[in-house]
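We were asked to recover a plausible sequence for a given structure. The inputs and outputs are reproduced exactly as logged, with field labels preserved.

PROBLEM: sequence recovery
POSITIONS: 610
GIVEN STRUCTURE:
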């Protein structure tokens, strides 16, 4: 291995082990590669009885033993015995991708079930290329077919997946069909009961990506130490190509390295640069990093920072930081609402967070789109990311656990190079039980095995002390596993009034940072009255004032993320004239108007900055 080093800087280049740095058996560079977007208008067929998937004896058409081996929806020109002449993509309605079906078509507002999507595209593959179909996310179960051939199935509504179509795609016209099923399942992740809208559809972009026959499949570049400014990296080239030359360049730091792959196609390095500027909310500096091998070239913008805890402090780049946060759902507030569809909608949410004074956002309760992660990195906003292990999922079901594990694998694989992401969260408000403790303990080990460079947490719950209800206790076996003791609490809203906040003291028996991951109360924007009248802006304002006073008295608090930035849809919130299918705990209304509590939190964060 040789290095090409600029004499104006001091560098140290070493081989390092790469175990645990890169995800197993995943081609993760498809995320950062450009491709042909297949977004736009897709033809759809709504299929509540799943007639396109099962015959009248409830046998799947694509089963191994079925003579047809493909559903009749695969191609509108198909003429197999399983066809039903009532159905045709060509004469059907359309939906826009990315997007949810609930807000695009009134009759699908409450719909949970199957919708078939079809997109036709032209393609001419070169002899020395491989081709992949990459999906940003499909909620919840996707079964994907190309030209009548089933490519595979993906389960999980918020993480990316792909299928290779080399040798399957036609030279010319192609028909891509996706069976999308958003039915809630007891064994699913999330499970049957949630407090957000179950948006169905192809909710994130779809792209056609081509690569060389052999190519860079994965990489991770990160900061090892804020004091020595050591950068380490691992690059996975196609495994069947050992002893290949891999080049790593960071032009602004005058770094140019020449590495060699080992017998498994892996190349690794460790190097120090005194010129390196560390990424932080005050200075969200990113560097262009270019990787190349045998003509395959990848470029990414990467920020370098460290995150760790020490006692009851969170240290960013070895310096204490107070996390001034807010929770966000991946829902757009205006123009009809619905699932966030593009980068500009994500940017508006983060601009509101910045206006509030935030340096941190909790992206609840599932992995959000890649745009918001990249924008947060660019804008200097730290991120808490989580998977929907939410409330009471099926703790004893092995398939449920593997589903949660896979969702974590996919989101860590996508975002492991993002400086903005500092916390992986295991779960939200899960009741303590032996089965739950085993499930989450196993999940924590999996996450740490994939990425030990970030903090681990979970949104736990508080409880009143039986012998003294004026003492709130946070005690959970999960707190022994995580790095941050995070908990949700709604003193002053559920079962009490804001005055209750002044009566409460806290017992949190851990020498770890304490983070309040949720608090708040509902208010309909424009509804005014006495500060003790529920659902008024004045009540929410008063609740925030009293809660913030209470939080300031809790020992070891390193930050907070009140619930929530913007009102969002939830089928649990049906109070006519006030909720109307919206959780109204937002500091901003579903029309984009700020409530009085917005300015209470803004003032609090401004004081924290002084």
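RECOVERED SEQUENCE:
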């Amino acid at each position: 291995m040789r290095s090409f080093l600029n004499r104006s800087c001091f560098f140290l280049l070493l081989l390092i082990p790469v175990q645990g740095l890169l995800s197993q058996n995943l081609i993760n560079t498809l995320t950062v590669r450009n491709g042909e977007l297949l977004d736009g208008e897709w033809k759809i067929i709504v299929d509540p009885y799943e007639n396109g998937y099962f015959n009248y004896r409830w046998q799947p058409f694509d089963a191994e033993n079925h003579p047809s081996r493909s559903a009749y929806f695969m191609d509108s020109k198909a003429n197999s015995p399983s066809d039903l002449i009532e159905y045709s993509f060509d004469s059907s309605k359309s939906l826009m991708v990315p997007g949810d079906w609930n807000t695009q078509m009134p009759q699908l507002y409450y719909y949970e079930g199957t919708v078939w999507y079809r997109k036709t595209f032209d393609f001419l593959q070169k002899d020395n290329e491989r081709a992949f179909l990459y999906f940003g996310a499909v909620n919840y179960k996707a079964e994907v077919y190309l030209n009548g051939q089933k490519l595979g199935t993906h389960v999980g509504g918020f993480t990316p997946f792909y299928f290779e179509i080399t040798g399957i795609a036609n030279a010319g016209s192609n028909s891509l069909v996706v069976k999308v099923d958003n039915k809630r399942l007891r064994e699913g992740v999330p499970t049957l009961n949630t407090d957000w809208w179950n948006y169905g559809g192809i909710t994130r972009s779809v792209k056609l990506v081509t690569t060389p026959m052999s190519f860079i499949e994965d990489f991770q570049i990160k900061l090892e130490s804020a004091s020595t400014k050591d950068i380490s990296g691992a690059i996975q080239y196609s495994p069947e190509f050992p002893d290949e030359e891999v080049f790593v360049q960071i032009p602004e730091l005058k770094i140019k390295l020449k590495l060699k792959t080992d017998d498994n196609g892996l190349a690794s390095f460790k190097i120090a640069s005194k010129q390196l500027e560390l990424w932080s909310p005050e200075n969200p500096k990113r560097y262009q990093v270019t990787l190349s091998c045998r003509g395959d070239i990848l470029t990414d913008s990467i920020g370098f920072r460290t995150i760790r805890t020490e006692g009851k402090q969170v240290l960013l780049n070895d310096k204490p930081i107070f996390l001034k946060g807010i929770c966000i759902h991946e829902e757009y507030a205006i123009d009809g609402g619905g699932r966030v569809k593009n980068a500009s909608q994500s940017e508006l949410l983060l601009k509101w967070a910045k206006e509030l004074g935030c340096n941190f956002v909790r992206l609840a309760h599932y992995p959000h789109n890649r745009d918001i992660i990249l924008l947060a990195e660019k804008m200097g906003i730290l991120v808490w990311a989580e998977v929907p292990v939410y409330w009471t999922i099926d703790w004893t079901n092995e398939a449920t656990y593997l589903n949660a594990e896979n969702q974590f694998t996919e989101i860590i694989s996508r975002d492991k190079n993002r400086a903005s992401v500092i916390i992986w969260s295991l779960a939200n408000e899960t009741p303590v039980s032996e089965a739950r403790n085993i499930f989450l303990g196993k999940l924590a080990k999996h996450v740490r095995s994939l990425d030990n460079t970030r903090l681990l947490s979970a949104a736990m719950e508080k409880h009143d002390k039986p012998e003294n209800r004026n003492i709130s206790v946070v005690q959970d076996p999960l707190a022994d596993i995580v790095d941050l003791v995070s908990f949700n609490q709604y003193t002053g809203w559920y079962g009490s009034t804001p005055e209750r906040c002044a009566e409460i003291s806290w017992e949190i028996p851990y020498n770890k940072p304490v983070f309040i991951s949720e608090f708040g109360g509902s208010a309909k924007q424009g509804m005014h009255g006495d500060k003790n009248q529920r659902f008024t802006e004045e009540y929410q304002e008063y609740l925030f004032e009293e809660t913030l006073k209470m939080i300031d008295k809790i020992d070891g608090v390193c930050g907070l993320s009140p619930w929530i930035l913007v009102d969002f849809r939830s089928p649990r919130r049906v109070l006519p004239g006030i909720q109307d299918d919206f959780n109204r705990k937002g500091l901003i209304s579903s029309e984009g108007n700020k409530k009085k509590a917005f300015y209470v939190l803004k003032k609090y964060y401004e004081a924290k900055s002084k």
